UniProtKB/TrEMBL annotation:
Compartments it resides in: Membrane
Main location: membrane
UniProt keyword terms in alphabetical order: Membrane, Transmembrane, Transmembrane helix
Keyword RNA-binding assigned: no
One term under GO cellular component: mitochondrial inner membrane
Similarity-based family: Belongs to the BI1 family.
Membrane topology: Multi-pass membrane protein
Membrane-spanning parts: 118-139, 151-170, 182-202, 208-226, 238-255, 261-283
Name of the protein: Growth hormone-inducible transmembrane protein
């Protein structure tokens, strides 16, 4: 009854009651659905490509002061830590004894081993300097050492690494032997490789040599005054750091230092390399002292090898010198 009254009052409402409204969605054909999926995928790819392009553009953007300032701050911090360590261990504030405290108790053969090791180190420096001077007097050799290209770089790296492996693999014998010949060849090759750096100017090279001597002398004093095993535990971190610096050096060959990524890699190779090889010098110095103390005295087949130990600190010193000279020549500000 009530429904009949409502229908009479509102005919439109009665029609709704008799035929309810059903909401329908438009039906798409298979072709339209396919086009929608294709357009959606194309839009996603475009957005991801745009994001990748942004990252590349950021890496290739012009370099600022950040990477070089961080590197300079790291070197300055390392210098402060080194001076602090020298004062701490040099003044005898450490509770543990260092090598310098036991030096008067060493047998004579330990003193002779350390003395011969540093004698070969000095001779290595002199041989490399003589080789560099000879290359400077020969235009053909300088042209060969300054030649660019991957073949020249590969030959140079093969000569350095190969000669180093040969000299380290040969056994040491008293007197002049084949190991001494390989040692002179190896140091001569390294001197020839460094020879083009002398074109930066004699006064600049001399100043860099004096600065390097001060750094090496200070670090050696820290290693001698510190406890004997203080820096021998640094072998693992130093090896990891060497890999990072090597990768950065290779990367800086492909990326110019005028970009953000290139400047970061160059800063790691330059400033990080200086800190790394300073740490290696501490490690190798204490390693020489340790081997001189504990190496068997009557090992006839394989006697104590001062040449191999000298090459370790010689390579550390050479890498420090190259980086100091590069920084003094303005290599820490390569943004043009």
């Amino acid at each position: 009854m009530l429904a009949t009254r409502l229908c009479r009052v509102s005919p439109g409402l009665a029609s709704l009651v008799r035929a309810p409204v059903v909401l329908t969605t438009p039906r798409l054909s298979k072709g339209q659905i396919t086009r929608l999926f294709v357009n959606d995928g194309r839009g996603s790819y475009t957005r991801s490509a745009r994001r990748r392009a942004t990252v590349v553009e950021q890496a290739a953007a012009p370099a600022g002061e950040t990477a070089f300032n961080i590197g300079k701050a790291a070197v300055a911090g390392g210098a402060v830590v080194g001076l602090g360590g020298l004062c701490y261990y040099g003044l005898g504030l450490s509770s543990q004894t260092g090598a310098i405290d036991r030096a008067h108790l060493w047998p004579q053969y330990v003193k002779d081993r350390i003395k011969s090791t540093y004698a070969y180190f000095g001779a290595s420096v002199a041989a490399s300097a003589a080789s560099a001077a000879m290359c400077l007097r020969s235009p053909a050799m300088m042209n060969l050492m300054m030649r660019q290209g991957w073949i020249a770089i590969g030959v140079t790296m093969a000569a350095m690494i190969g000669s180093g492996m040969v000299v380290r693999g040969l056994p040491y014998k008293e007197g002049f032997s084949s190991k001494h010949v390989a040692w002179l060849v190896h140091t001569g090759i390294l001197g020839a490789v460094v020879a083009p750096l002398t074109l930066l100017g004699g006064p600049l090279v001399l100043r860099a040599a004096w600065y390097t001597a001060g750094i090496v002398g200070g670090l050696s004093a820290v290693a001698v005054c510190a406890p004997s095993d203080k820096f021998l535990a640094m072998g693992g971190p130093l090896a990891i750091g060497l890999g990072v610096v090597a990768v950065s050096s290779i990367g800086s060959m492909f990326l110019p230092p005028t970009t953000v990524l290139g400047s970061g890699l160059y800063s790691i190779a330059l400033y990080g390399g200086l800190l790394l090889f300073s740490g290696f010098l501490l490690y190798d110095t204490q390693k020489i002292i340790k081997q001189a103390e504990i190496y068997p005295m009557y090992n006839i087949d394989r006697p104590y090898d001062p040449i191999n130990n000298a090459i370790s600190i010689y390579l550390d010193t050479l890498n420090i010198f190259i980086r100091v000279l590069t920084m003094m020549a303005g290599g820490g500000n390569r943004r043009k």
